[in-house]
Amino acid sequence: MSLPASDLSKQPDMRTTMELGAVLPRTAEVRDGHLFIGGVDMVELAREQGTALYVFDEADVRARMSEYREAFAARYSQSDIIFASKAFINKAMVRIVDEEGLCLDVSGGGELARALATGFPAERVFVHGNNKTPAELEEAMRAGVGRIVVDSRIELARVSEIAGRLGITQDIYMRITPGVEADTHEYIKTGCEDSKFGFTMLNDFAYTCVGTALETPHVRLVGLHCHIGSQIFALHSFREAADVMIDFMARVRDGYGHTITELDLGGGLGIAYAADDQPPSIEEFAEVTCTAVREACARHDLPLPRLLVEPGRSLVANAGVTLYTVGILKTLPGIRKYVAVDGGMSDNIRTALYHADYEPTIANKADQPRTEIVTLCGKHCESGDAVVIDMPLQQADLGDIVCVFGTGAYCYTMASNYNGQPRPGVVFVRDGQARVTTRRETYEDLYAKDL
Ligand SMILES: Cc1ncc(COP(=O)(O)O)c(C=O)c1O
Q: How far apart are the C-alpha atoms of 195 and 424, rounded to whole Å?
């Protein structure tokens, strides 16, 4: 794994921190040259808590959750927002999801266990995954989860067998692959035909399996689900997915005489990682989705289903940042300038995985223009270990506190202990207060499980 060659003609855009727009957490501000989030000085916080450190703007997270809820409630009679906890989960976030009245999507026994340990109501949990183990399914059913999103024929039989043994009837969705090519990175496309997820519509497979599900004991098919991918800006992709799903629901009604009453269109709304990114708003997403569902249902004379969406990234990514300390500076003439930080692919694998874009700033120089193009590399034993590739930054000095924006999703949950790096702590900031919601790992944590 290595980095793409640096584009040496790239010029810094000279924007200051507050000119980075949608990339910033909503309460970000600059006071006396320091970056503040939630009224808390990021430079002081870094010195108190150490780095690397994940920081969340709690007011921002709550505002996006209520925006989603209200945007759908204003346009549609019966809707629910499900937070995709794979984007970020700790107990504090689970509590916020509960308080804000959202449901929770879990993709494995561990996410479910954390939700239950926090006291999240099981009936508002949706269980996902393409290979849930029998043990995970049983744990979920014993807990009384609301819906299991069945991903394959084998799993349908498993759910039925376990539900029968437990003496319950389990409400299920079936995940359908709608064959919609979302306009996003290859690795995060999921709705196209060649996917490990869900029931393909090719050769009427999904349709036939719906028939099987309707005859399967101990399960009740209440809904269909699809998820076409992540970091999607093209709203027409969501409209196409809604059309395909409702056409399918109409076919199920006509062919089997069964009305599907719930439709979960998954997550996927994109966010701004770079200052020039212009993702659609939550309102625009809601408008397109609700309109598409209403129009398609009217075409087929179908009753409106309960409508659900499952955002992850668009709820938490821009609310979260990562703080690092600059430890080494290295300029390779004619190649690139490296600014090495005390983290890297262990706390943010997205850059190494798909050369994701991020905007950085120096929190103790936040009022200065970003005059250099640098690569923020990590401290790990991989050439491709970088957090930010070729982006503008202020002139860096040793000991500076770098803040990387937009790291609230798919960073902490994908973090590793590579090179024996303890995972960073997570701090929520709000109204001038900082609270540690997950403590930094210790060296002892690293070997506590070794026998
Ligand atoms: C089934 C499912 N639902 C929801 C999501 C959340 O997607 P996003 O974070 O792009 O909103 C994902 C993420 O890949 C997913 O796999």
A: 33
